[in-house]
Specification:
Elements: E1 7-11, H1 18-33, E2 39-43, H2 46-55, E3 62-65, H3 82-86, E4 91-94, H4 97-102, H5 107-119, E5 123-128, H6 132-136, H7 140-152, H8 157-162, E6 164-167, H9 181-200, H10 202-207, E7 209-213, H11 221-225, E8 232-235, H12 244-252
Parallel strand pairs: 1-2, 1-8, 2-3, 3-4, 4-5, 5-6, 6-7, 7-8
Helix pairs in contact: 1-2, 5-7, 7-9
The structure holds 2-phosphoglycolic acid.
């Protein structure tokens, strides 16, 4: 297996004022600093990106945005451009299921955002995953494949090798009902890496880091990280807990 550096990203979603964000970072900074063998990424809301980035100066902990527009600038009221994000962040979450389901983000929009992120030297964390209905209808493989290949269409293998994929089954997000490590491994290994190998070649498929996301907690994280094709986690709820999040990061140090 290719040597891929584990990565754990915390998606704070719409939580934390600047003041609250500062407290949260303070409370976990020492614990996070201690795990250099895992790439650690904090994804606060836009308003807290700058203060969080400032607090992390001089550490190797990275910052990510949770979304962005694909255009450089222009008449897009309420949007944030890749140039703006790249001032503070190294990563950007793209195509999270909450964006797709609550804000009408389509595969075509996700693709534009992935391309825009790479143009600005931001590493996109591209989210894919099936809903409960799709899972029950036996469509997991088809849905995940389609979302993945649509998001990466038009990229060169060397660009694909740099980005990060997060497999986040929608039914597991925020529900406390995580997929089993075996299920997550099956989709990531047999669907995601297989599709990457077909489209971009086996070397690229082995180089890409693929995370699992959906109710990852301190008590279940190690099970996911023990799987051969899972390189880390995208963590929602537990990333707001200054004890649990570093514990998840430590579990990824292998
Ligand atoms: P959760 O969220 O860990 O709270 O399930 C994961 C995510 O939405 O990225």
């Amino acid at each position: 297996m290719a040597q891929r550096m584990p990565l754990v990203a915390g998606n704070w979603k719409m939580h934390k004022t600047v003041e609250e964000a500062r407290h949260l970072v303070w409370d976990m900074l020492d614990a996070l600093r201690d795990v250099p063998e895992v790439e650690r990424v904090l994804c606060p809301p836009f308003t807290a990106l700058l203060p969080v980035a400032q607090m992390l100066l001089g550490t190797d902990i990275k910052v990510g945005a949770q979304n962005m527009h694909w255009e450089e600038e222009g008449p897009y009221t309420g949007e944030i451009s890749p140039r703006m994000v790249a001032e503070f962040a190294q990563f950007v979450i793209v195509g999270h299921s909450e964006r797709r389901m609550l804000f009408g983000e389509t595969d075509a929009m996700v693709r534009r955002k992935v391309h825009a992120a790479l143009r600005h030297d931001l590493i996109p964390i591209v989210c894919v995953g099936e809903t409960l209905e799709q899972r029950r209808a036996g469509q997991t493989e088809a849905v995940v494949r389609k979302q993945l290949l649509a998001a990466l269409e038009g990229l060169q293998p060397e660009q694909v090798a740099r980005l990060v994929i997060a497999y986040e089954p929608v039914w597991a997000i925020g529900t406390g009902e995580a997929a089993t490590p075996e299920e997550a491994q099956r989709v990531i290994g047999q669907v995601i890496r297989a599709a990457l190998a077909e489209a971009f070649g086996p070397e690229t498929a082995q180089a890409v880091r693929v995370l699992y996301g959906g109710s990852v907690k301190a008590h279940n994280a190690a099970g996911f990280f023990a799987q051969p094709d899972i390189d880390g986690a995208l963590v929602g709820g537990a990333s707001l807990d200054p004890v649990q999040f570093p514990a998840i990061v430590r579990a990824a140090a292998r």
